[in-house]
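Project channel, design review

CF: Before we commit to the Aegilops tauschii subsp. strangulata constructs, I'd like one complete example in the thread so the newer folks can see what an input/output pair looks like. Taking GDSL esterase/lipase.
RD: sounds good, go ahead.
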Amino acid sequence: MQGGRIPFAGQVQNYQTAVQTLVNILGDRDTASERLSQCIFTVGMGSNDYLNNYFQPAFYNTGSRYTPEQFADSLIADYRRYLQAMYSYGARKVALIGVGQVGCAPNELARYSPDGATCVGRIDGAIQIFNRRLFGLVDQMNTLPGAHFTYINAYNIFNDILANAAAYGFTESTAGCCGVGRNNGEVTCLPYQAPCANRDQHIFWDAFHPSEAANIIVGRRSYRAQSPNDAYPMDISTLASL
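CF: and here is what came back for GDSL esterase/lipase:
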């Protein structure tokens, strides 16, 4: 890991430490468990495993060592283990955020798309394999007593935004608001670089990440589903009401 990023395992360890602190503050484990059972946890994992690992053959050999199915299985095995650890430490309401259309990000378009506009099918195909397994993991976790896990279909939501960009007020769906090169995606935003003047009309902020305007749509539909495919088995507003 580079910089100050904390891996999933480290975040779970930090959560376990925080739970012990909460037990000490509240006085006993039962009171802490009751409090934690009302909290909503959100977990989003996977996009960087594909962007910065599986599809980076110059730096990692996972793309040649694993088929997309095998790689997804490996990620989900780790995911399951960490979610079970969270559950054992009191997490009961958990929203799992699926991976979005990584193959449509400006960096991937710049690198692999012949016309700079068509999403990269082999990348999005691998993402969908992972998301299907994550969907199934929700059902597995919900067999645990008191568990309320739900899957947020970020891929479906983002697909709708891309397919209906104009209806959402976007005029640019393939280039970052800042960046360098083709699609503003060959090099991501540089220090002191002036971003575009119409950031709310861009689906992507930089070479990899959606803009604030796009994220607001994803957030709203995650909280209150606009389509039956947005969340399974419930959206976050329903999760909050339990």
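RD: helpful, thanks. The radius of gyration is 19 Å.
CF: The first helix runs from residue 8 to 26.
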